[in-house]
């Protein structure tokens, strides 16, 4: 029998039911499975470790046991894909607020949705749609969040050296994963209650924290690589990039990958 985590709060729209597992392949995959089996929106699945943690663009996400928070929320948006696509950016704001509220540290956002501390990745977010109907309405959506809490440089290993960081590298003592989860669930609950009405507020918060704006970036697309300057953020959280020939383009997260030209951010 799996037990209900004490982090469950009946009044929460997100996190009324929190399942905390020891090991799972991926909390996103588990949420998608449960969603397909009819689990209610607002269910949250956490795990102490993931054997197949997934990142964006088919990458894996390092998920060492007990070192990070690996958490996914099942949502039932009943909204068009174009609308729910913005949820990842909203979630980045929610993560920043949760980290700041708990630790006093002030994270930044690398467009589209990495949360950074001192220019290194503290948290990744992977949003995945499950069932979508023929009209394009998203029935099930999973927002997955991985926050690095206790990893040392050695834990990250050569692949993530200089790229990833954890809260323990910035604080005398990192918060426990339950504490981080509770702070995050408070923010996710609020986010889901005010989505999409509070877009102006989340957009302003995102802009204020976005480390990509004003920087030189390299754009990676299936048809090649280009360098430009990130000059603005659109109403839909798209990134406006000015290229060397003066042309500007609004890039959406699904289309391109952006690399800073100075280090990871
Ligand atoms: C990225 O950085 O590319 C996104 C990483 C998302 C990782 C989280 S950990 C919890 C959830 N389960 C997964 O398999 N992925 C997300």
Keyphrases for this structure?
6 helices, 265 residues, binds biotin, alpha+beta, globular
> Major sheet: size, sense and barrel closure?
7 strands, mixed
- The SSE string, one letter per element, is EHEEEHHEEEEEHHHEEEEE
| Shape category | globular
Oligomeric nature of the chains: single chain
Number of helices: 6
Question: What ions, cofactors and ligands are bound?
Answer: biotin
State the distance separating the first and last CA atoms. Answer: 43 Å
Strand order of the largest sheet: 1-2-3-9-7-6-5
Helix amount, in percent?
A: 25-40%
The computed structural class is alpha+beta
- Tell me, rounded to a whole number, the average pLDDT: 93
Strand % is 25-35%
Low-confidence stretches: none
The number of distinct β-strands equals 14
Q: What is the C-alpha radius of gyration, as a whole number of Å?
A: 18 Å
The gist of it:
With 265 residues, this protein is an alpha+beta fold. The protein has helices at residues 27-36, 81-84, 87-103, 153-160, 177-194, 199-209, and strands at 17-24, 43-50, 68-75, 79-80, 108-110, 114-117, 120-129, 137-138, 141-148, 216-221, 224-233, 239-243, 248-251, 257-260. The strands form three sheets. A seven-stranded mixed β-sheet has the order 1-2-3-9-7-6-5, with helices on both faces. A five-stranded antiparallel β-sheet has the order 13-12-11-10-14, with no helix packed on it. Strands 4-8 form a two-stranded antiparallel sheet.
């Amino acid at each position: 029998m799996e037990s209900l985590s004490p982090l469950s709060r009946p009044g929460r729209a997100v996190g009324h039911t929190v399942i905390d597992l020891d090991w799972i392949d991926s909390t996103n995959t588990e949420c998608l499975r449960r969603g397909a089996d009819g689990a209610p929106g607002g269910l949250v699945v956490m795990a102490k470790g993931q054997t197949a943690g997934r990142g964006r663009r088919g990458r894996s996400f390092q998920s060492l046991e007990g070192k990070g928070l690996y958490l996914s929320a099942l949502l039932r948006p009943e909204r068009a894909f174009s609308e729910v696509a913005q949820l990842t950016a909203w979630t980045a704001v929610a993560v920043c607020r949760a980290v700041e509220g708990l630790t006093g540290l002030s994270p930044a956002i690398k467009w589209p949705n990495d949360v950074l501390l001192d220019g290194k990745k503290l948290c990744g977010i992977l949003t995945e749609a499950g069932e979508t109907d023929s009209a394009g309405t998203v029935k099930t959506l999973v927002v997955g969040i991985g926050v690095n809490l206790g990893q040392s440089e050695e834990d990250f290993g050569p692949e993530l050296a200089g790229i990833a960081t954890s809260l323990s590298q910035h604080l005398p003592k990192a918060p426990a994963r339950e504490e981080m989860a509770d702070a995050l669930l408070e923010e996710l609950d609020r986010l889901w209650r005010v989505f999409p009405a509070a877009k102006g507020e989340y957009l302003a918060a995102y802009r204020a924290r976005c480390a990509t704006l004003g920087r030189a970036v390299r754009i990676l697309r299936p048809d090649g690589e280009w360098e430009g300057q990130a000059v603005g953020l659109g109403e839909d959280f798209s990134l406006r990039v000015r290229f060397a020939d003066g042309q500007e383009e609004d890039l959406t997260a699904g289309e391109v990958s952006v690399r800073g030209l100075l280090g990871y951010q």
